[in-house]
Predict the structure.
Amino acid sequence: MKTSKISTVCIRILFSTLFLLVSTGIHAQLKYLQDVKDLPPHPRILMLSGEEQQIKANIAADPTWSKIHRSIIDECDNIIALPAKERIVEGRRLLSVSREVLRRVFYLSYAYRMSGEEKYAERAEKEMLAVAAFSDWNPSHFLDVAEMTMAMAIGYDWLYNRLSPASRDAVKSAILQKGIDPSLKRGNNGFLRSTNNWNQVCNGGMSYGALAIYEDMPEFAKLIVDRAVESIRLPMGEYAPDGAYPEGYSYWEYGTGFNLMFLSAVTKIFGTDYGLSQLPGFLKTPGYHENMVGPTNLCYNYADCGSGAGGLSPFMFWYAAQTKNPSLLWLEKKHLEADRKYIGNRLLPAVMIWGSATKVDGIQPPAELMWAGRGANPVALMRSSWTDPNAVFVGFKGGTASSSHAHMDAGSFVMEADGVRWAMDFGSQGYHSLESKGVDLWNKAQNSQRWQVFRYNNFVHNTLTVNDQLHLVGGFADLSSWSSAPSFMNAVADLSKIFEGQLSQSLRGVALVDGQYVAVRDEITAADKEVTVRWTMLTPADVKIKGKNSVELKKNGKKLTLQVVEPATVTMKTWTTASTNDYDDPNPGTVLVGFEVKIPARTSAALTVKLIPQSAKKTGAKVPELKAWPK
Protein backbone atom coordinates (compact mmCIF):
# COMPACT_ATOMS: atom_id res chain seq x y z
CA MET A 1 0.00 0.00 0.00
CA LYS A 2 2.77 2.44 0.85
CA THR A 3 4.51 1.80 -2.47
CA SER A 4 1.24 2.26 -4.31
CA LYS A 5 0.63 5.57 -2.54
CA ILE A 6 4.03 6.91 -3.57
CA SER A 7 3.52 5.71 -7.12
CA THR A 8 0.17 7.48 -7.31
CA VAL A 9 1.76 10.70 -6.12
CA CYS A 10 4.58 10.33 -8.65
CA ILE A 11 2.10 9.76 -11.49
CA ARG A 12 0.21 12.85 -10.40
CA ILE A 13 3.42 14.85 -10.34
CA LEU A 14 4.32 13.67 -13.84
CA PHE A 15 0.94 14.77 -15.20
CA SER A 16 1.32 18.08 -13.41
CA THR A 17 4.76 18.42 -14.99
CA LEU A 18 3.30 17.98 -18.47
CA PHE A 19 0.73 20.64 -17.62
CA LEU A 20 3.53 22.89 -16.38
CA LEU A 21 5.47 22.53 -19.62
CA VAL A 22 2.46 23.41 -21.74
CA SER A 23 0.82 26.13 -19.66
CA THR A 24 3.77 28.09 -18.33
CA GLY A 25 6.17 27.95 -21.23
CA ILE A 26 8.85 26.06 -19.28
CA HIS A 27 10.39 23.63 -21.72
CA ALA A 28 11.59 20.13 -21.04
CA GLN A 29 15.01 21.04 -22.43
CA LEU A 30 17.17 21.73 -19.37
CA LYS A 31 19.27 24.86 -19.55
CA TYR A 32 21.67 24.27 -16.66
CA LEU A 33 21.42 20.73 -15.31
CA GLN A 34 21.41 18.75 -18.57
CA ASP A 35 24.68 16.97 -17.75
CA VAL A 36 23.79 16.12 -14.15
CA LYS A 37 23.40 12.40 -13.42
CA ASP A 38 23.86 10.97 -9.95
CA LEU A 39 23.93 13.08 -6.83
CA PRO A 40 25.96 12.42 -3.69
CA PRO A 41 24.22 10.06 -1.24
CA HIS A 42 22.24 11.34 1.72
CA PRO A 43 22.98 13.58 3.54
CA ARG A 44 23.88 15.98 0.74
CA ILE A 45 22.03 19.27 1.31
CA LEU A 46 24.37 21.98 2.69
CA MET A 47 26.63 19.49 4.51
CA LEU A 48 27.86 16.18 3.11
CA SER A 49 28.46 13.14 5.26
CA GLY A 50 31.72 13.56 7.18
CA GLU A 51 31.76 17.35 7.02
CA GLU A 52 30.61 17.46 10.61
CA GLN A 53 34.26 16.99 11.56
CA GLN A 54 35.27 20.50 10.50
CA ILE A 55 32.49 21.94 12.64
CA LYS A 56 33.51 19.81 15.60
CA ALA A 57 37.11 20.97 15.24
CA ASN A 58 36.00 24.59 15.23
CA ILE A 59 33.84 24.01 18.30
CA ALA A 60 36.77 22.45 20.12
CA ALA A 61 39.16 25.26 19.18
CA ASP A 62 36.97 28.34 19.72
CA PRO A 63 34.86 28.98 22.85
CA THR A 64 32.50 31.26 20.92
CA TRP A 65 31.58 28.51 18.47
CA SER A 66 31.34 26.07 21.34
CA LYS A 67 28.78 28.38 22.97
CA ILE A 68 26.66 28.62 19.81
CA HIS A 69 26.74 24.85 19.38
CA ARG A 70 25.81 24.31 23.00
CA SER A 71 22.96 26.82 22.68
CA ILE A 72 21.51 24.89 19.73
CA ILE A 73 21.77 21.60 21.60
CA ASP A 74 20.17 23.10 24.72
CA GLU A 75 17.35 24.50 22.62
CA CYS A 76 16.80 21.08 21.07
CA ASP A 77 16.39 19.68 24.57
CA ASN A 78 13.68 22.31 25.08
CA ILE A 79 12.01 21.43 21.77
CA ILE A 80 11.79 17.77 22.70
CA ALA A 81 9.29 18.61 25.43
CA LEU A 82 7.03 20.62 23.09
CA PRO A 83 4.03 19.14 21.28
CA ALA A 84 4.28 18.93 17.49
CA LYS A 85 2.90 21.94 15.63
CA GLU A 86 -0.69 21.89 14.43
CA ARG A 87 -2.16 23.31 11.23
CA ILE A 88 -3.42 26.63 12.64
CA VAL A 89 -3.89 29.37 10.05
CA GLU A 90 -3.78 33.04 11.09
CA GLY A 91 -5.78 35.05 8.60
CA ARG A 92 -4.41 34.02 5.22
CA ARG A 93 -1.13 32.62 6.57
CA LEU A 94 0.24 29.37 7.97
CA LEU A 95 3.64 31.02 7.88
CA SER A 96 4.33 31.17 11.61
CA VAL A 97 3.78 27.41 11.80
CA SER A 98 6.02 26.74 8.80
CA ARG A 99 8.78 28.88 10.27
CA GLU A 100 8.67 27.16 13.63
CA VAL A 101 8.69 23.73 11.98
CA LEU A 102 11.75 24.78 9.95
CA ARG A 103 13.48 25.95 13.12
CA ARG A 104 12.71 22.76 15.00
CA VAL A 105 13.61 20.33 12.24
CA PHE A 106 16.81 22.16 11.27
CA TYR A 107 17.96 22.38 14.90
CA LEU A 108 17.07 18.79 15.74
CA SER A 109 18.64 17.40 12.57
CA TYR A 110 21.81 19.34 13.32
CA ALA A 111 21.84 18.04 16.90
CA TYR A 112 21.49 14.46 15.69
CA ARG A 113 24.26 14.77 13.11
CA MET A 114 26.62 16.35 15.61
CA SER A 115 25.84 14.11 18.61
CA GLY A 116 24.36 10.91 17.21
CA GLU A 117 21.78 10.95 20.00
CA GLU A 118 18.55 9.21 19.00
CA LYS A 119 16.32 11.55 20.98
CA TYR A 120 16.91 14.37 18.49
CA ALA A 121 16.14 12.25 15.44
CA GLU A 122 13.03 10.83 17.09
CA ARG A 123 11.68 14.31 17.91
CA ALA A 124 12.39 15.58 14.38
CA GLU A 125 10.65 12.53 12.94
CA LYS A 126 7.62 13.20 15.13
CA GLU A 127 7.44 16.80 13.88
CA MET A 128 7.77 15.78 10.24
CA LEU A 129 5.11 13.09 10.44
CA ALA A 130 2.72 15.56 12.04
CA VAL A 131 3.32 18.03 9.23
CA ALA A 132 3.03 15.30 6.60
CA ALA A 133 -0.48 14.63 7.91
CA PHE A 134 -1.64 18.24 7.40
CA SER A 135 -4.38 18.56 4.79
CA ASP A 136 -2.12 20.96 2.89
CA TRP A 137 0.59 23.56 3.56
CA ASN A 138 -1.58 26.53 2.55
CA PRO A 139 -0.60 26.98 -1.11
CA SER A 140 -2.72 30.14 -1.44
CA HIS A 141 0.10 31.87 0.47
CA PHE A 142 3.00 30.06 -1.06
CA LEU A 143 5.70 31.27 1.31
CA ASP A 144 4.11 28.90 3.82
CA VAL A 145 4.62 25.96 1.47
CA ALA A 146 8.18 26.98 0.64
CA GLU A 147 9.40 27.14 4.24
CA MET A 148 7.59 23.93 5.16
CA THR A 149 9.10 22.14 2.18
CA MET A 150 12.57 23.28 3.14
CA ALA A 151 12.02 22.01 6.67
CA MET A 152 10.86 18.61 5.47
CA ALA A 153 13.67 18.37 2.91
CA ILE A 154 16.39 19.05 5.48
CA GLY A 155 14.93 16.52 7.88
CA TYR A 156 14.43 13.91 5.17
CA ASP A 157 17.97 14.36 3.82
CA TRP A 158 19.90 14.73 7.07
CA LEU A 159 18.02 11.93 8.85
CA TYR A 160 17.55 9.69 5.80
CA ASN A 161 19.65 6.81 7.12
CA ARG A 162 17.88 6.98 10.46
CA LEU A 163 14.24 7.26 9.35
CA SER A 164 12.13 4.13 9.04
CA PRO A 165 10.94 3.19 5.52
CA ALA A 166 7.40 4.15 6.50
CA SER A 167 8.50 7.57 7.73
CA ARG A 168 10.57 8.15 4.61
CA ASP A 169 7.55 7.35 2.44
CA ALA A 170 5.28 9.65 4.41
CA VAL A 171 7.70 12.58 4.32
CA LYS A 172 8.63 12.07 0.69
CA SER A 173 4.98 11.86 -0.31
CA ALA A 174 4.27 15.12 1.56
CA ILE A 175 7.23 16.90 -0.06
CA LEU A 176 5.94 15.92 -3.49
CA GLN A 177 2.20 16.25 -3.00
CA LYS A 178 1.97 19.23 -0.61
CA GLY A 179 5.23 20.99 -1.47
CA ILE A 180 6.43 20.71 -5.03
CA ASP A 181 3.21 19.72 -6.84
CA PRO A 182 1.35 22.95 -5.92
CA SER A 183 4.26 24.96 -7.35
CA LEU A 184 3.44 23.60 -10.80
CA LYS A 185 0.06 25.35 -10.86
CA ARG A 186 -0.10 28.83 -12.33
CA GLY A 187 -2.26 30.08 -9.49
CA ASN A 188 0.52 29.32 -7.02
CA ASN A 189 3.73 29.95 -8.95
CA GLY A 190 3.63 33.66 -9.56
CA PHE A 191 6.86 33.71 -7.57
CA LEU A 192 8.66 32.45 -10.68
CA ARG A 193 8.10 35.84 -12.31
CA SER A 194 8.55 37.94 -9.18
CA THR A 195 11.53 40.21 -8.50
CA ASN A 196 11.13 40.23 -4.71
CA ASN A 197 11.75 37.94 -1.74
CA TRP A 198 8.92 35.57 -2.72
CA ASN A 199 10.99 34.35 -5.63
CA GLN A 200 14.05 33.72 -3.47
CA VAL A 201 12.17 31.95 -0.67
CA CYS A 202 9.90 29.86 -2.86
CA ASN A 203 12.56 28.76 -5.34
CA GLY A 204 14.78 27.89 -2.39
CA GLY A 205 12.11 25.76 -0.75
CA MET A 206 11.09 23.95 -3.93
CA SER A 207 14.71 23.21 -4.82
CA TYR A 208 15.39 21.73 -1.39
CA GLY A 209 12.42 19.45 -1.86
CA ALA A 210 13.65 18.37 -5.28
CA LEU A 211 17.20 17.75 -4.08
CA ALA A 212 15.92 15.68 -1.15
CA ILE A 213 13.86 13.25 -3.27
CA TYR A 214 16.15 13.23 -6.32
CA GLU A 215 16.66 9.41 -6.49
CA ASP A 216 12.96 8.75 -6.93
CA MET A 217 12.33 11.27 -9.73
CA PRO A 218 15.68 12.53 -11.04
CA GLU A 219 14.45 14.15 -14.26
CA PHE A 220 11.60 15.87 -12.49
CA ALA A 221 13.92 17.04 -9.68
CA LYS A 222 16.36 18.48 -12.22
CA LEU A 223 13.50 20.35 -13.86
CA ILE A 224 12.56 22.01 -10.57
CA VAL A 225 16.13 23.06 -9.74
CA ASP A 226 16.80 24.16 -13.33
CA ARG A 227 13.64 26.26 -13.19
CA ALA A 228 14.91 27.88 -9.98
CA VAL A 229 18.38 28.68 -11.37
CA GLU A 230 16.72 30.58 -14.20
CA SER A 231 13.95 32.23 -12.17
CA ILE A 232 16.00 33.39 -9.19
CA ARG A 233 18.04 35.63 -11.49
CA LEU A 234 15.11 38.05 -11.43
CA PRO A 235 15.33 39.10 -7.76
CA MET A 236 19.11 38.78 -7.85
CA GLY A 237 19.06 41.48 -10.53
CA GLU A 238 17.65 43.85 -7.92
CA TYR A 239 21.01 44.01 -6.09
CA ALA A 240 22.57 45.86 -9.02
CA PRO A 241 24.53 47.98 -9.25
CA ASP A 242 25.87 48.41 -5.70
CA GLY A 243 24.12 45.88 -3.45
CA ALA A 244 21.35 48.02 -1.92
CA TYR A 245 18.38 45.72 -1.30
CA PRO A 246 15.10 47.43 -2.33
CA GLU A 247 12.92 45.82 0.35
CA GLY A 248 15.00 47.00 3.31
CA TYR A 249 16.83 45.41 6.20
CA SER A 250 14.50 42.67 7.43
CA TYR A 251 13.54 41.56 3.94
CA TRP A 252 17.24 41.47 3.08
CA GLU A 253 17.52 38.86 5.82
CA TYR A 254 14.58 36.95 4.39
CA GLY A 255 15.16 37.13 0.65
CA THR A 256 18.95 37.08 0.68
CA GLY A 257 19.01 34.42 3.38
CA PHE A 258 16.93 31.94 1.40
CA ASN A 259 18.82 32.89 -1.74
CA LEU A 260 22.04 31.85 0.01
CA MET A 261 20.46 28.66 1.32
CA PHE A 262 19.71 27.87 -2.32
CA LEU A 263 23.15 28.82 -3.65
CA SER A 264 24.95 26.96 -0.89
CA ALA A 265 22.99 23.76 -1.47
CA VAL A 266 23.35 23.89 -5.25
CA THR A 267 27.08 24.59 -5.07
CA LYS A 268 27.62 21.78 -2.56
CA ILE A 269 25.88 19.24 -4.78
CA PHE A 270 26.74 20.38 -8.32
CA GLY A 271 30.05 22.15 -7.70
CA THR A 272 28.77 25.39 -9.26
CA ASP A 273 26.13 28.06 -8.68
CA TYR A 274 25.83 28.60 -12.45
CA GLY A 275 27.24 32.12 -12.20
CA LEU A 276 24.50 33.41 -9.92
CA SER A 277 26.75 34.77 -7.18
CA GLN A 278 28.63 36.82 -9.77
CA LEU A 279 25.57 38.79 -10.84
CA PRO A 280 26.13 42.57 -10.41
CA GLY A 281 25.81 43.81 -6.84
CA PHE A 282 25.25 40.44 -5.18
CA LEU A 283 28.69 40.16 -3.58
CA LYS A 284 28.52 43.86 -2.60
CA THR A 285 25.29 43.55 -0.66
CA PRO A 286 26.79 42.43 2.69
CA GLY A 287 28.28 45.93 2.94
CA TYR A 288 24.75 47.30 2.74
CA HIS A 289 23.52 44.97 5.47
CA GLU A 290 26.41 45.64 7.85
CA ASN A 291 26.26 49.41 7.45
CA MET A 292 22.49 49.51 7.97
CA VAL A 293 22.92 48.98 11.74
CA GLY A 294 23.83 51.89 13.99
CA PRO A 295 25.82 51.94 17.25
CA THR A 296 22.61 51.40 19.25
CA ASN A 297 22.14 48.07 17.41
CA LEU A 298 19.04 49.47 15.74
CA CYS A 299 18.89 49.08 11.98
CA TYR A 300 17.69 51.71 9.55
CA ASN A 301 14.22 50.20 9.50
CA TYR A 302 12.68 51.82 6.44
CA ALA A 303 9.86 50.19 4.48
CA ASP A 304 8.08 47.14 5.95
CA CYS A 305 10.82 46.45 8.46
CA GLY A 306 10.24 45.20 11.99
CA SER A 307 11.17 46.80 15.29
CA GLY A 308 14.55 47.88 14.08
CA ALA A 309 16.69 45.66 16.30
CA GLY A 310 19.66 44.11 14.57
CA GLY A 311 20.44 40.46 15.22
CA LEU A 312 22.84 37.69 14.27
CA SER A 313 22.84 37.04 10.53
CA PRO A 314 24.21 33.59 9.57
CA PHE A 315 24.32 34.75 5.96
CA MET A 316 27.11 37.24 6.60
CA PHE A 317 29.42 34.29 7.27
CA TRP A 318 28.77 32.98 3.76
CA TYR A 319 29.66 36.40 2.37
CA ALA A 320 32.76 36.77 4.52
CA ALA A 321 34.04 33.42 3.26
CA GLN A 322 33.20 34.15 -0.37
CA THR A 323 34.76 37.63 -0.40
CA LYS A 324 37.58 36.81 2.05
CA ASN A 325 36.59 39.88 4.04
CA PRO A 326 36.23 39.03 7.74
CA SER A 327 35.47 42.66 8.63
CA LEU A 328 31.95 41.96 7.33
CA LEU A 329 31.53 40.04 10.58
CA TRP A 330 32.30 42.90 12.96
CA LEU A 331 28.70 43.17 14.16
CA GLU A 332 28.18 39.41 13.96
CA LYS A 333 31.09 38.96 16.34
CA LYS A 334 29.27 41.06 18.90
CA HIS A 335 26.11 39.01 18.47
CA LEU A 336 28.02 35.76 18.82
CA GLU A 337 29.60 36.98 22.04
CA ALA A 338 26.29 38.24 23.46
CA ASP A 339 23.47 36.25 25.05
CA ARG A 340 21.24 33.63 23.40
CA LYS A 341 18.94 36.03 21.52
CA TYR A 342 20.02 34.40 18.28
CA ILE A 343 18.39 31.13 19.31
CA GLY A 344 15.12 32.14 17.66
CA ASN A 345 16.76 32.30 14.24
CA ARG A 346 15.33 29.34 12.35
CA LEU A 347 18.34 29.08 10.05
CA LEU A 348 20.93 29.36 12.83
CA PRO A 349 22.57 25.93 12.21
CA ALA A 350 23.72 27.25 8.84
CA VAL A 351 26.15 29.56 10.65
CA MET A 352 27.95 26.49 11.98
CA ILE A 353 28.53 25.40 8.38
CA TRP A 354 29.38 28.74 6.79
CA GLY A 355 31.45 29.90 9.76
CA SER A 356 33.32 26.64 10.27
CA ALA A 357 36.63 28.17 9.16
CA THR A 358 36.15 31.53 10.91
CA LYS A 359 38.28 32.51 13.90
CA VAL A 360 36.15 34.96 15.83
CA ASP A 361 39.02 36.59 17.73
CA GLY A 362 40.61 37.79 14.50
CA ILE A 363 37.62 39.80 13.26
CA GLN A 364 38.38 43.52 12.94
CA PRO A 365 36.06 46.49 12.23
CA PRO A 366 35.56 47.75 8.66
CA ALA A 367 37.95 50.38 7.37
CA GLU A 368 35.26 52.53 5.73
CA LEU A 369 32.84 54.71 7.68
CA MET A 370 30.40 55.24 4.79
CA TRP A 371 28.47 53.01 2.41
CA ALA A 372 26.24 54.21 -0.42
CA GLY A 373 24.46 52.40 -3.19
CA ARG A 374 22.05 53.09 -6.01
CA GLY A 375 19.16 50.89 -7.06
CA ALA A 376 15.36 50.84 -6.68
CA ASN A 377 15.77 52.22 -3.13
CA PRO A 378 19.15 54.00 -3.05
CA VAL A 379 20.59 54.55 0.40
CA ALA A 380 23.58 56.23 2.07
CA LEU A 381 24.86 55.21 5.51
CA MET A 382 27.40 57.24 7.49
CA ARG A 383 29.01 56.99 10.94
CA SER A 384 31.79 58.60 12.92
CA SER A 385 33.15 55.31 14.32
CA TRP A 386 32.65 51.52 14.31
CA THR A 387 33.97 51.09 17.85
CA ASP A 388 32.53 54.04 19.81
CA PRO A 389 29.05 53.20 21.22
CA ASN A 390 28.33 56.94 21.31
CA ALA A 391 29.21 57.48 17.65
CA VAL A 392 27.08 59.60 15.32
CA PHE A 393 25.18 57.52 12.75
CA VAL A 394 22.88 58.63 9.96
CA GLY A 395 21.01 56.67 7.31
CA PHE A 396 19.44 58.49 4.35
CA LYS A 397 17.41 57.16 1.43
CA GLY A 398 15.83 58.06 -1.86
CA GLY A 399 13.68 55.56 -3.71
CA THR A 400 10.04 55.15 -4.63
CA ALA A 401 6.81 54.10 -2.94
CA SER A 402 6.09 51.77 -5.88
CA SER A 403 8.75 49.18 -5.01
CA SER A 404 8.05 46.04 -3.01
CA HIS A 405 7.10 46.71 0.64
CA ALA A 406 7.97 50.41 0.26
CA HIS A 407 6.56 53.33 2.24
CA MET A 408 6.27 56.95 1.16
CA ASP A 409 9.66 57.73 2.66
CA ALA A 410 11.83 59.11 -0.14
CA GLY A 411 14.18 61.67 1.40
CA SER A 412 13.79 60.23 4.89
CA PHE A 413 16.62 59.65 7.35
CA VAL A 414 17.41 58.23 10.77
CA MET A 415 20.03 59.64 13.12
CA GLU A 416 21.62 58.62 16.39
CA ALA A 417 24.33 59.92 18.69
CA ASP A 418 25.43 59.45 22.30
CA GLY A 419 23.74 56.04 22.36
CA VAL A 420 20.28 57.42 21.45
CA ARG A 421 18.31 57.17 18.22
CA TRP A 422 16.99 60.70 17.90
CA ALA A 423 15.43 60.57 14.43
CA MET A 424 13.51 57.31 14.01
CA ASP A 425 11.26 55.38 11.65
CA PHE A 426 8.22 53.43 12.81
CA GLY A 427 8.82 50.64 10.34
CA SER A 428 5.88 48.37 9.58
CA GLN A 429 2.68 47.41 11.34
CA GLY A 430 1.80 43.71 11.50
CA TYR A 431 0.06 42.71 8.28
CA HIS A 432 -2.62 40.57 9.93
CA SER A 433 -3.64 43.41 12.26
CA LEU A 434 -4.49 45.47 9.17
CA GLU A 435 -5.81 42.74 6.88
CA SER A 436 -8.13 41.42 9.58
CA LYS A 437 -9.82 44.83 9.67
CA GLY A 438 -10.36 44.88 5.92
CA VAL A 439 -7.51 47.20 4.97
CA ASP A 440 -6.56 46.90 1.30
CA LEU A 441 -2.89 46.77 2.19
CA TRP A 442 -1.27 45.57 -1.03
CA ASN A 443 -2.82 47.96 -3.54
CA LYS A 444 -0.20 50.61 -4.29
CA ALA A 445 -2.29 52.93 -6.46
CA GLN A 446 -1.93 56.63 -5.63
CA ASN A 447 -5.26 56.81 -3.83
CA SER A 448 -5.25 53.31 -2.34
CA GLN A 449 -6.01 52.54 1.28
CA ARG A 450 -2.40 51.48 1.87
CA TRP A 451 -1.37 55.12 2.01
CA GLN A 452 -3.96 55.89 4.66
CA VAL A 453 -2.19 53.54 7.08
CA PHE A 454 -0.53 55.91 9.52
CA ARG A 455 2.96 54.40 9.45
CA TYR A 456 3.12 54.08 5.67
CA ASN A 457 2.62 57.57 4.28
CA ASN A 458 5.00 60.52 4.11
CA PHE A 459 3.30 62.52 6.88
CA VAL A 460 5.10 60.58 9.63
CA HIS A 461 8.45 60.08 7.94
CA ASN A 462 11.51 62.31 8.26
CA THR A 463 11.00 63.97 4.92
CA LEU A 464 9.13 66.83 3.24
CA THR A 465 5.40 67.12 2.62
CA VAL A 466 3.99 69.66 0.17
CA ASN A 467 0.49 71.10 0.59
CA ASP A 468 -0.49 68.21 2.88
CA GLN A 469 -0.41 65.88 -0.13
CA LEU A 470 0.87 62.34 -0.45
CA HIS A 471 4.12 61.71 -2.27
CA LEU A 472 3.67 60.52 -5.84
CA VAL A 473 3.76 56.74 -5.91
CA GLY A 474 5.30 56.70 -9.37
CA GLY A 475 8.03 59.20 -8.48
CA PHE A 476 11.62 58.13 -7.94
CA ALA A 477 14.41 59.83 -6.00
CA ASP A 478 17.94 58.83 -6.95
CA LEU A 479 21.17 59.61 -5.18
CA SER A 480 22.75 62.28 -7.37
CA SER A 481 26.08 62.29 -5.49
CA TRP A 482 27.86 61.19 -2.34
CA SER A 483 31.24 61.53 -0.66
CA SER A 484 33.06 59.81 2.19
CA ALA A 485 35.22 62.86 2.90
CA PRO A 486 35.91 62.67 6.68
CA SER A 487 35.22 66.35 7.29
CA PHE A 488 31.94 66.38 5.31
CA MET A 489 30.62 62.89 4.67
CA ASN A 490 27.42 63.37 2.68
CA ALA A 491 24.86 62.24 0.12
CA VAL A 492 22.44 64.21 -2.04
CA ALA A 493 19.14 62.93 -3.45
CA ASP A 494 16.96 64.47 -6.14
CA LEU A 495 13.36 64.33 -4.90
CA SER A 496 11.90 66.40 -7.75
CA LYS A 497 9.87 63.53 -9.28
CA ILE A 498 8.28 62.81 -5.89
CA PHE A 499 6.73 66.31 -5.92
CA GLU A 500 6.15 66.70 -9.66
CA GLY A 501 3.52 69.37 -10.36
CA GLN A 502 4.11 71.03 -6.98
CA LEU A 503 7.85 71.65 -6.98
CA SER A 504 9.96 72.13 -10.07
CA GLN A 505 13.03 71.13 -8.06
CA SER A 506 13.64 69.41 -4.75
CA LEU A 507 17.15 68.43 -3.72
CA ARG A 508 17.97 67.11 -0.25
CA GLY A 509 21.43 66.62 1.17
CA VAL A 510 22.36 64.96 4.45
CA ALA A 511 25.88 65.36 5.84
CA LEU A 512 27.86 64.13 8.83
CA VAL A 513 30.10 67.10 9.58
CA ASP A 514 33.53 66.46 11.15
CA GLY A 515 32.05 63.33 12.74
CA GLN A 516 30.29 65.70 15.21
CA TYR A 517 26.78 66.55 14.02
CA VAL A 518 24.36 66.12 11.13
CA ALA A 519 23.23 68.75 8.65
CA VAL A 520 20.10 68.37 6.49
CA ARG A 521 19.74 70.84 3.64
CA ASP A 522 16.85 71.14 1.17
CA GLU A 523 17.00 73.32 -1.93
CA ILE A 524 13.53 73.61 -3.44
CA THR A 525 11.78 75.64 -6.11
CA ALA A 526 8.00 76.00 -6.24
CA ALA A 527 6.20 75.28 -9.50
CA ASP A 528 3.48 77.58 -10.81
CA LYS A 529 1.64 78.06 -7.52
CA GLU A 530 2.54 78.99 -3.96
CA VAL A 531 3.19 75.92 -1.83
CA THR A 532 3.38 75.11 1.86
CA VAL A 533 6.27 72.81 2.68
CA ARG A 534 6.37 70.91 5.93
CA TRP A 535 9.68 69.60 7.36
CA THR A 536 9.20 66.82 9.91
CA MET A 537 11.27 64.53 12.09
CA LEU A 538 9.88 61.63 14.12
CA THR A 539 11.52 61.20 17.51
CA PRO A 540 11.10 59.10 20.69
CA ALA A 541 12.60 61.94 22.75
CA ASP A 542 10.97 64.51 24.99
CA VAL A 543 10.65 67.72 22.98
CA LYS A 544 10.89 71.29 24.26
CA ILE A 545 10.66 74.23 21.88
CA LYS A 546 13.38 76.69 22.92
CA GLY A 547 12.72 79.53 20.49
CA LYS A 548 11.79 80.47 16.94
CA ASN A 549 14.43 78.23 15.39
CA SER A 550 15.42 75.74 18.03
CA VAL A 551 14.14 72.62 19.75
CA GLU A 552 15.74 70.65 22.58
CA LEU A 553 15.34 66.87 22.61
CA LYS A 554 16.01 64.79 25.75
CA LYS A 555 16.29 61.02 26.02
CA ASN A 556 18.03 58.72 28.50
CA GLY A 557 19.75 61.63 30.21
CA LYS A 558 21.19 62.91 26.90
CA LYS A 559 20.35 66.00 24.86
CA LEU A 560 20.23 66.94 21.20
CA THR A 561 19.50 70.35 19.68
CA LEU A 562 17.49 70.64 16.46
CA GLN A 563 18.51 74.03 15.06
CA VAL A 564 16.95 75.57 11.94
CA VAL A 565 19.65 77.66 10.26
CA GLU A 566 17.55 78.61 7.23
CA PRO A 567 15.05 80.25 6.94
CA ALA A 568 16.19 82.80 9.49
CA THR A 569 12.90 82.70 11.36
CA VAL A 570 10.43 79.83 11.52
CA THR A 571 7.83 78.71 14.04
CA MET A 572 8.71 75.31 15.44
CA LYS A 573 5.84 72.86 15.86
CA THR A 574 5.02 69.41 17.12
CA TRP A 575 2.39 67.01 15.79
CA THR A 576 0.78 64.04 17.47
CA THR A 577 1.52 60.47 16.42
CA ALA A 578 -1.91 59.25 17.52
CA SER A 579 -3.99 58.09 14.57
CA THR A 580 -7.76 58.47 14.22
CA ASN A 581 -7.99 55.21 12.22
CA ASP A 582 -9.20 52.23 14.25
CA TYR A 583 -6.88 49.90 12.32
CA ASP A 584 -3.65 51.76 13.15
CA ASP A 585 -1.36 50.60 15.95
CA PRO A 586 -0.75 53.07 18.78
CA ASN A 587 2.57 54.91 18.81
CA PRO A 588 3.21 55.84 22.43
CA GLY A 589 6.30 57.77 23.44
CA THR A 590 6.80 59.41 20.05
CA VAL A 591 6.21 62.83 18.56
CA LEU A 592 6.72 64.65 15.27
CA VAL A 593 8.71 67.87 15.39
CA GLY A 594 9.42 70.37 12.63
CA PHE A 595 8.17 73.50 10.89
CA GLU A 596 6.28 74.78 7.86
CA VAL A 597 7.25 77.42 5.30
CA LYS A 598 5.40 79.05 2.41
CA ILE A 599 7.25 79.38 -0.87
CA PRO A 600 5.80 81.68 -3.58
CA ALA A 601 5.27 80.41 -7.13
CA ARG A 602 8.46 79.92 -9.17
CA THR A 603 10.58 80.92 -6.17
CA SER A 604 13.54 79.04 -4.73
CA ALA A 605 14.25 78.51 -1.04
CA ALA A 606 16.74 76.67 1.15
CA LEU A 607 15.89 74.81 4.35
CA THR A 608 18.91 73.99 6.50
CA VAL A 609 18.72 72.10 9.79
CA LYS A 610 21.47 70.98 12.14
CA LEU A 611 21.07 68.06 14.53
CA ILE A 612 23.63 68.73 17.26
CA PRO A 613 24.37 66.17 20.01
CA GLN A 614 25.38 67.53 23.40
CA SER A 615 28.82 65.95 22.92
CA ALA A 616 29.45 67.85 19.67
CA LYS A 617 32.04 70.63 19.48
CA LYS A 618 32.66 73.30 16.84
CA THR A 619 29.17 73.26 15.35
CA GLY A 620 29.00 76.82 14.06
CA ALA A 621 30.35 76.29 10.54
CA LYS A 622 28.11 77.43 7.70
CA VAL A 623 26.45 74.67 5.68
CA PRO A 624 27.31 75.36 2.05
CA GLU A 625 25.01 75.14 -0.96
CA LEU A 626 24.55 71.59 -2.22
CA LYS A 627 26.54 72.27 -5.38
CA ALA A 628 29.59 72.92 -3.17
CA TRP A 629 29.29 69.67 -1.22
CA PRO A 630 32.16 67.22 -1.78
CA LYS A 631 31.47 64.52 -4.37
